[in-house]
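Hey,

Quick one before I head out. I ran the complex with magnesium ion overnight. Inputs first:
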Amino acid sequence: MIVKDAEFICSNTEIDKLPIANLPEYAFIGRSNVGKSSLINAMTGRKGLAKTSQKPGKTQLINHFLINKTWYLVDLPGYGFAQTSKKNRSTWEKFIRAYLINRVNLQCVFVLIDSRLEPQKIDLDFVCWLGEQGIPFQMIFTKADKQSGVKSDQNIAKFRRAMKKWFEELPVHFLTSSETKLGCEQVLENIDAINQQFEAPIE
Ligand code: GTP
Ligand code: MG
């Protein structure tokens, strides 16, 4: 898929102020600093579209981007950001979980996982929660440029092995880099295929 058009629509902390749910929507979620915003910029070829930072906790709101005027890409705040207060964390949890459960046009959640790391409990807990809720998701392993392909593949295999304790079938996964754009085209093609199946929810 060629991204001809990518437009920031809105930032939100309230579920009832989200854009009308009439277009297919895809959300990026994962630990703080895993590279969600960077990957949105790499996939759309727009460097400053989503705000990125070396410091974790940059994205604080639900940000909607309209792509090719036909689908939404959503940048979410990261989880597991130690500096955030407990109160903040539970507000985040409630808000994001409510969004993920109730958003009727959400076609797929992309869970971003750092390909440099061994399986982390926080990521495994989160994919298990998505599984329990029956929310469709796929996994994107990020920052592939930071180490050898062998190392990334080992970490991916370990993560998938850990998931097998809870999942009968494992979802699709991708290996990406925002620096080299590895995997960006595959993620876009995959979104394109899901878009073809989309039927607008009845309001
Ligand atoms: P929060 O908004 O805080 O949850 O973080 P985020 O997941 O949106 O991460 P962000 O895209 O802001 O990236 C965090 C840091 O990682 C930045 O310094 C990026 O430049 C860097 N980064 C992200 N993706 C990649 C990648 O694929 N390769 C390399 N080398 N660096 C990356
Ligand atoms: Mg971000």
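The domain at 6-195 is CATH 3.40.50.300 (Rossmann fold).

Talk tomorrow,
K.
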